[in-house]
Amino acid sequence: MPGDVSAWVLQDWAANAATPKGRAITVLFRLAQLAGRSELPRPVRVATTTALRVVLELVFRVELPWRLEVGPGLRVFHGTGLVVHEQVRLGAGCVLRHATSIGLAHTDDLDGAPTLGDEVVVGTQVVILGPVTIGDRAIVGAGSVVVDDVAPDTVVGGNPARYLRDRRPGDS
Ligand SMILES: CC(C)(COP(=O)(O)OP(=O)(O)OC[C@H]1O[C@@H](n2cnc3c(N)ncnc32)[C@H](O)[C@@H]1OP(=O)(O)O)[C@@H](O)C(=O)NCCC(=O)NCCS
After folding, report:
1. What is the C-alpha to C-alpha distance for residues 87 and 104, in angstroms, rounded to an integer?
2. Which residue's C-alpha comes closest to atom 41 of ligand 1?
3. What is the pLDDT of residues 107-118, one digit of tens each?
4. Pocket residue to mutate for ligand 1, from 80, 164, 171, 172, most atoms within 8 A of Cβ
């Protein structure tokens, strides 16, 4: 279990200052991680992670499994319809929005989840599929379908997503 419980649960709090909904979603997600990774008796662990998942899914319509590895400072804007497979890895300071799926290209392809680096910004209505790597500070434009790696510090968009330009200071 992470050492400092409140620091763990609130690790995304400041990043979501502009969005109370993002704060609620990330706190519930971090609580679920805390419970899932704890040494509580299994029935208690399962009941707690399930209850938190039900709240996240039914109230916010967000699927962020507790097994997901996510660096600190995750920002969630809107969130409704956000689905992330539990094998996806997200670096620190990423931005996720609504109506977005990040997961496997094939149902049973268990080594096939995307990896997002630090400070990656994902627009709304994005699909990122398969064992692709999205480099640090890349921006994925709204409505994109990403099936190839994305270089760090670049902006991509479209279906399939293509390079649009380099990321500029102040882009978010
Ligand atoms: C990708 C993005 C960051 C680019 O921003 P930008 O650089 O200001 O984009 P511009 O409007 O100057 O367009 C630059 C080029 O990229 C293209 N482009 C922009 N966004 C695109 C997208 N999402 N998908 C595909 N192409 C896109 C434009 O058509 C334009 O192409 P052209 O040079 O051939 O005319 C932005 O359009 C975007 O999608 N942001 C996501 C934000 C979001 O999801 N907000 C949701 C709020 S609820």
Report:
1. 9
2. 123
3. 888 779 999 999
4. 164
